[in-house]
Amino acid sequence: MATARMDLGFVNDDCDARLLQSHYFPSKVGGKPAWLSLNPIPKTEQLSCPRCNNPLVFLLQVYSPRDKTEEDAFHRTLFLFVCQNSACSTPNDASNFKVFRSQLPRMNQFFSSDPPPDDPADEIGPAPSAQKYQPLCEVCGCIGPKQCSQCKSVSYCCKDHQTLHWKAGHKTACGKHVSHDSEDPSACGVLFPELELEIEEETYSPEKSTKDETEASQEYQQYAENVNTGQSGSGLGDQYSEQDLEGMAAQETEDDRIFKKFKKRVAQNEEQVLRYSKGGEPLWVSSDHQAKQEDIAVCSCGAPRQFEFQVMPQLLNHLGVDEKEGNSLDWGTLCVFTCRDSCAIGSNYTEEFVWKQDFSADR
Ligand SMILES: [Zn+2]
Ligand SMILES: [Zn+2]
Ligand SMILES: [Zn+2]
Ligand SMILES: [Zn+2]
């Protein structure tokens, strides 16, 4: 089997926010979504949590043109959303996540067919924005069909976000002729910190082995020897047959093996928050709950879906989730599978497939 190219994503918290706007076709974490297709963007129903119905919040987007020669996917971005309600988070269950694919031809109604200036200061005219085509929620940047009934100048996706915005400062700004720019949407505590995602090819040498790995394999060898000679320190030999013990040891070593492989691979690029390899293989964190082909729903066009990228647990360190009360956002890894054919969807957003795998309970 040919090894697919593997790219890694790293966060950069020192990026000019102007470079994270839609027409720069960014890959990024947090902030508001930088929509690719500016109209129509996903509807409120598409962006509500299937479990609690609350609005999903933008987590990250990855710009990944399928192939620059592909007429209708010259631009292509995947958008990942999550429900922040801790009650919706269950181990090995991705139902509080949704991922959408958007793509556009080079000649489209929203963006120039030429790339934007390297220096955003050289820009002429207003930046293309989804706001031009439909009202956006002031708090989360998704579609905002509800207006503030007093000033009618700001919109919201739902009552909750309106209330948060009111408390965070709109109460004093409403109806006064002050620039809404002074109302910081991050003050509402909904958005994740906005960070650029820098993608580069993985450098990895399989020969390098870490100290951890050597120690773990020695420990296991010791354990296996004890089991074989019936000298297990815990007295297990009295209660279980040799066969049982071999079974337990084999099971343990399979999960250990996968976890060690994961740790070894990550150790050489510890800051990675994303692994990208279209048509490649995810790096699993456990032997449990690995997605098999039959687990992955086929695309509505009938084509199978293939692996495209995975979000690593390291990203959690950058999301400031510990500071948020009642938030239990967690994952071992989030694997995104997309239509093998990147089928034509016009300027719509189509839902793709997310799989969540958690670390085994004893990690
Ligand atoms: Zn929910
Ligand atoms: Zn909102
Ligand atoms: Zn108002
Ligand atoms: Zn498809």
TrEMBL record:
Keyword Zinc-finger appears in the UniProt entry: yes
SUPFAM superfamilies registered for this protein in UniProt: HIT/MYND zinc finger-like (SSF144232)
Domain MYND-type: from-to ranges: 137-174
Listed GO MF terms: zinc ion binding
UniProt entry keywords in alphabetical sequence: Metal-binding, Zinc, Zinc-finger
GO CC, any one term: nucleus
Gene3D superfamilies, alphabetized: 6.10.140.2220
Pfam families: PDCD2_C, zf-MYND
PANTHER family cross-referenced by the UniProt entry: PCDC2 PROGRAMMED CELL DEATH PROTEIN 2 -RELATED, PROGRAMMED CELL DEATH PROTEIN 2
Protein name stated in the entry: MYND-type domain-containing protein
